Amino acid sequence: MNRGSRVTGYGTALPERVITNHDLAQILDTSDAWITERTGIKERRIGGTTRALGIEAAQLAMDMAGVTGADLDGVILATTTPDRVIPATASSLQLAIGARCGAFDLNAACSGFVYGLNVAHGLILAGAERVLLVGSETLSRFVDWEDRGTAVLFGDGAGAVVLSAVSGDDNALLGWALDCNGTLEKSLYCDFGGFIHMDGREVFRQAVRIMVSTCENALEAAGLGTDEVDLVIPHQANIRIIQSACQKLGLSEDRTVEVLSWTGNTSSASIPLALADAADSGRLGEGDIALLVGFGAGMTSASALLRWDL
Ligand code: ACO
Fold first, then answer.
1. Is 256 a pocket residue for ligand 1 (Cβ < 6 Å)?
2. What is the mean pLDDT of the chain?
3. Which of 50, 114, 160, 241 is positioned for an S-S bond with 58, CB 3.0–4.6 A?
4. Residue pair 61/161 in contact by the 8 Å Cβ criterion
5. Which residues contact 12 (CB under 8 A, 6 or more apart)?
């Protein structure tokens, strides 16, 4: 097909309020040493709404891409923490940025951003010129702050990209894989009006396995080997999950991006936050091939090989 997509802009947003591990140790039976050693997380940002964080990140991404809301042909908001049940938070985001196109929420938990990337790419293959993809989360609203097993893990934030149509030769989405294993849905869930419940050990074990298999599937689809990957941009849940999966894949740790030490796990927002951090710091340069990999409740998994053209 003589059509493809590439990222033409990105942006992020984080709440101002910082909660450190030391802060949590004041209210929970935990310690900075325990949280750091088991997860790699030192602090997280808390506050705001999914809509407001999403708008801020979206506006920055659109500014970088040089587009306005009126130029968009699709708005996808990847979130597992919408502001309301009805309507989709994407509706009010669409209004705020002045878009006049289809807009919807996509919930694939922490894999949401990479799911969204593939859906946005699909819309472009079907004829859309520009699609805005936002990952925005306010997980702090669904955390039981008295449960040390989950409260230490999550944070709020948002990241966004604009995907634009290019010719097939310039297509930057080189390969992808999506998966879901519904038999694991009870290992991580949140009911209406409730808090996040998680079997941490089971999620950890499955996350490593799933992360390896989704990466292998995307690499095979793209016809690439791990040696051709310049940078891995993984979902930021736990540094030990990232280290363990990358070791099994034969990818050295210096080829991975980490932001979880200061963001915590921000679900759908974690990969675009890490992507922006890598681009801003110069770790991701023009022509580099990035392997984006997400895994999360469901349990879902998703990966995408993206050539960076910015
Ligand atoms: N501080 C101190 N002690 C704690 C804490 C805490 N914050 N949390 C649990 N403990 C205790 C437990 O009570 C347990 O005590 P016990 O032995 O007396 O019963 C002990 O520490 C060990 O508990 P484990 O659950 O076995 O600890 P583990 O090493 O597995 O670490 C953790 C727990 C960090 C949750 C880990 O299992 C993990 O990261 N799992 C994956 C979580 C994850 O990534 N979730 C999200 C992925 S998907 C998504 O993002 C939606």
1. no
2. 97
3. 160
4. yes
5. 57, 60, 157, 158, 159, 160, 269, 272, 273, 276
> Is residue 106 a contact partner of residue 115, using CB atoms and an 8 Å limit?
yes
Pocket test for ligand 1, best of 203, 236, 243 (most atoms within 8 A of CB): 203
The position carrying tokens 């039981």 is: 144
Whole-model pTM: value is 0.97
238 in helix, strand or coil?
A: coil
Nearest atom, ligand 1, residue 196 CA: 51
CB 303 within 8 A of CB 215: yes
CB atoms within 10 A of CB 211: 26
How many CA atoms lie less than 13 Å away from 48 in the CB half-sphere?
A: 23
- Taking the C-alpha atoms of residue 301 and residue 185, their distance in angstroms, rounded to an integer, is 13
d(CA 124, CA 118): 10
**Which residues have a catalytic role annotated?**
110, 235, 265
Ligand 1 atom with the shortest distance to the CA of 150: 35
Which tens digit of pLDDT belongs to each residue from 28-87? 999 999 999 999 999 999 999 999 999 999 999 999 999 999 999 999 999 999 999 999
- Asked if residue 200 has its Cβ within 6 Å of ligand 1, the reply is yes
